[in-house]
């Protein structure tokens, strides 16, 4: 397994007196990050967003998983649907079926940003997480961005995360006072199969997660979108039974 940026071995002892904030969507990657953080930090606060997404099943999954994981959980309301520009917030935009001939392994320079990109979403989410980190005295924000099996989103690139971390330490009271903040990206260089294997080793129940772009109100996945396809391929390559419930 490749060693990702800011990796802390899951066998390491928890960072005594160090807290973390985890961005928790309820999907496969973010839940893996939640359990990774629980294994490595003294106290974990999960932050989720009700941002006007097409369905609430992923958010409901996040609430349920945070409760099971026994972590503090904050749900913040932001209406990004007012801005439009994404099929994840605009019911009038169509989410296409996955292009199963596409190469998802190298989107570093992809100029064709998919319609599921939500404008500035990670910047907005990380800004709120930064505020929560200051309030909870956390020195780390954990986000499940991935530079291997992702769909070409510009705010998932390593250079973006590095830039935000630099800004965060310039813009906060904690940073000015010398309490350095880190943006941890434990999944950054892992394939979907490697992420699943990591999560299983940490005790994640992936049957509780919702990753589909157009899941129904019961959390049943469409099995056709990019997110479903990457998830299916991940379980197949990890040689682990896929617990996802499909429509």
How would you sum up this structure, described in words?
- It holds the Pfam family QueC.
- Catalyzes the ATP-dependent conversion of 7-carboxy-7-deazaguanine (CDG) to 7-cyano-7-deazaguanine (preQ(0)).
- InterPro entries: QueC, Rossmann-like_a/b/a_fold.
- Its cofactor is Zn(2+).
- Its EC number is 6.3.4.20.
- The protein contains seven helices and five strands; from the N terminus they run βαβαβαβααβαα.
- The protein has helices spanning 28-40, 57-69, 121-135, 158-171, 173-176, 192-202, 226-238, and strands at residues 15-23, 41-50, 72-77, 138-142, 182-184.
- It is globular, with a radius of gyration of 17 Å.
- The model is unreliable at 1-13 and 106-110 (pLDDT under 50).
- Helices cover 34% and strands 13% of the residues.
- α1 (28-40) runs parallel beside α2, α1 packs across α6 (192-202) and α6 packs across α7 (226-238).
- Strands 3-2-1-4-5 form a five-stranded parallel beta sheet.
- It has a single domain, classed as Rossmann fold.
- The protein is an alpha/beta fold and 247 residues long.
- α1 (28-40) links the parallel β1 and β2.
Summarize this structure as a short list of keywords or feature phrases.
247 residues, alpha/beta, Rossmann fold, 5-stranded parallel β-sheet, 7 helices, disordered N terminus
Figure out the total of helices.
7
Write the element-wise H/E pattern from the N-terminal end onward: EHEHEHEHHEHH
Write out the strand line-up for the largest beta sheet, numbering strands in chain order: 3-2-1-4-5
Q: How helical, in percent, are the residues?
A: 25-40%
Query: What overall form do the CA principal axes indicate?
Result: globular
Low-confidence stretches: 1-13, 106-110
Named CATH topology: Rossmann fold
Write the CATH homologous superfamily: HUPs
How large is the radius of gyration?
17 Å
CATH architecture: 3-Layer(aba) Sandwich
The quaternary organization reads as: single chain
Highest-level CATH class: Alpha Beta
Distance between the termini: 33 Å
- How many structural domains are formed by the residues? 1
């Amino acid at each position: 397994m490749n060693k990702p940026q800011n990796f802390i071995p899951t066998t390491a002892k928890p960072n005594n007196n160090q807290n973390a904030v985890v961005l928790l969507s309820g999907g496969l990657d973010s839940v893996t990050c939640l359990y990774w953080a629980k294994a490595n930090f003294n106290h974990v606060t999960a932050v989720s967003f009700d941002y006007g997404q097409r369905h609430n099943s992923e958010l409901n999954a996040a609430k349920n998983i945070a409760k099971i994981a026994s972590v503090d959980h904050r749900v913040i309301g932001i209406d990004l649907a007012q801005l439009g520009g994404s099929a994840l917030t605009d019911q009038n935009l169509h989410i296409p079926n996955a292009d199963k001939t596409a190469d998802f392994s190298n989107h570093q320079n992809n100029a064709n940003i998919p319609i599921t990109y939500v404008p500035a979403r990670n910047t907005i989410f990380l800004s709120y997480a930064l505020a929560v980190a200051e309030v909870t005295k956390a020195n780390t924000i954990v986000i499940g961005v991935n530079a291997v099996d992702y769909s070409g989103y510009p705010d998932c690139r390593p250079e973006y995360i590095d830039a935000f971390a630099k800004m965060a330490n310039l813009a906060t009271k904690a940073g000015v006072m010398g309490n350095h903040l880190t943006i941890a990206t434990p999944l950054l260089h892992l394939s979907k199969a490697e992420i699943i294997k990591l999560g299983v080793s940490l005790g994640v129940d992936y049957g509780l997660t919702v990753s589909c772009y157009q899941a129904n109100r019961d959390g049943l996945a469409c099995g056709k979108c990019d997110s479903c396809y990457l998830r299916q391929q991940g379980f197949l390559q990890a040689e682990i039974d896929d617990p996802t419930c499909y429509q």
